[in-house]
Amino acid sequence: MVLPPDDDLATLSVTGADFDWPISLATPAEPAPGAAAQAFQHLVERHLASNG
Known about the structure:
Layout: H1 35-51
């Protein structure tokens, strides 16, 4: 998935790392997070549901 630049989502490139580590994700109820943050939240929730 490719997302357009958005102030609500930061991009960090990491190479040669083990990506099996926990993440924490919190989004505010008000104001609603931007589209990129919502898309990232959806990806995390989908990953957790399929690997839980």
